[in-house]
């Protein structure tokens, strides 16, 4: 029986020496001292890293959500246009408040493996969208992702800019192997977005969701780490 090996390095947040099983290489784990999310290097004698947040693009900042974002989040999550192709209905103020109270505390290293980010418009200093990812698999090297943009900001290229940066965050910065995203087959804008970003249409699920009294189809898109364009 082989002896378990460990990867040792200083926490990039608090500086304390930490070590993790080799099985954790490349994944986000909580520091046992400061409890912050840190990325375990893929080999010994390599530095660990903090989550590279916020993510900045020419027009946007993707950052962790804050309690003060409640009014902007409500504007998105209560809009029927946002949920036109979703099984769940729009949220009311109480639901948004409870959801936000939960997600501001979450960490990528939690058991759920979920991370929600706000998409802030730089010029207007306003939260105009949401991005989420949820890791899965035994080594958490895969994730399902999703994005929502305030309907008042559609057709400005913000969804493309945000998701392009988010794919780089997932597949390059935090070392995921594969990400997937789905949309209603009738959502032409989402299909164009995923295709333009170079994601592959891997599957079509027929009549898998019941929306407003009728069955709808879903399309699934995916991208592997080696498929991420170098310029992204």
Write the layout of secondary structure elements.
Blueprint: E1 6-10, E2 17-21, E3 28-30, E4 37-39, E5 49-50, E6 55-56, E7 60-64, H1 70-77, H2 93-103, E8 114-121, E9 126-136, E10 142-149, H3 158-173, E11 178-184, H4 188-196, E12 200-211, E13 214-224
Parallel strand pairs: 10-11
Antiparallel strand pairs: 1-2, 3-4, 4-5, 6-7, 7-8, 8-9, 9-10, 11-13, 12-13
Can you characterise this structure?
- The protein has 232 residues and is an alpha+beta fold.
- It contains 4 helices and 13 strands.
- An 8-stranded mixed β-sheet has the order 6-7-8-9-10-11-13-12, with helices on both faces.
- Helix 1 (70-77) crosses helix 2.
- The model has no long low-confidence stretch (mean pLDDT 93).
Q: Report Rg.
A: 19 Å
The major sheet is characterized as: 8 strands, mixed
Count of all domains? 2
Number of strands: 13
CATH superfamily of the largest domain: Gcn5-related N-acetyltransferase (GNAT)
Helix content: 10-25%
| CATH level 3 topology of the largest domain | Aminopeptidase
Short description:
The chain is an alpha+beta fold and 232 residues long. The protein has helices spanning 70-77, 93-103, 158-173, 188-196; strands at residues 6-10, 17-21, 28-30, 37-39, 49-50, 55-56, 60-64, 114-121, 126-136, 142-149, 178-184, 200-211, 214-224. It folds into two domains: 6-50; 55-227, Aminopeptidase, CATH 3.40.630.
Keywords:
globular, Aminopeptidase, 4 helices, 232 residues, eight-stranded mixed β-sheet, three-stranded antiparallel β-sheet, alpha+beta, 19% helix
């Amino acid at each position: 029986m082989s002896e378990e090996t460990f990867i040792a390095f200083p926490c990039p947040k608090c500086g304390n020496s930490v070590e993790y099983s080799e099985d954790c290489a490349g994944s986000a784990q909580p520091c046992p001292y400061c409890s912050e999310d840190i990325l375990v290097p893929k080999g010994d004698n390599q530095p660990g890293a903090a989550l590279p947040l916020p993510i900045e693009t020419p027009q946007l900042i993707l950052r962790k959500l804050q309690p003060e974002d409640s009014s902007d989040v409500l504007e998105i999550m209560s809009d029927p246009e946002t949920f036109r192709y979703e099984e769940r209905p729009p949220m009311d103020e109480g639901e948004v408040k409870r959801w936000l109270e939960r997600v501001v505390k979450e960490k990528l290293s939690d058991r759920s493996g979920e991370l929600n980010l706000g998409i802030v418009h730089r010029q207007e200093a306003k939260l105009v969208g949401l991005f989420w990812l949820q890791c899965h698999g035994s080594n958490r090297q895969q994730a399902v992702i999703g994005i929502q943009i305030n309907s008042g900001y559609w057709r400005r290229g913000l969804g493309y800019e945000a998701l392009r940066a988010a794919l780089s965050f997932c597949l390059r910065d935090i070392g995921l192997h594969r990400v997937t995203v789905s949309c209603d087959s009738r959502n032409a804008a989402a299909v164009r977005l995923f295709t333009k970003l170079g994601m592959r249409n891997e599957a079509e699920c027929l009549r898998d969701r019941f929306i407003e009294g009728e069955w709808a189809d879903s399309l699934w898109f995916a991208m592997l780490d080696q498929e991420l364009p170098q310029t992204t």
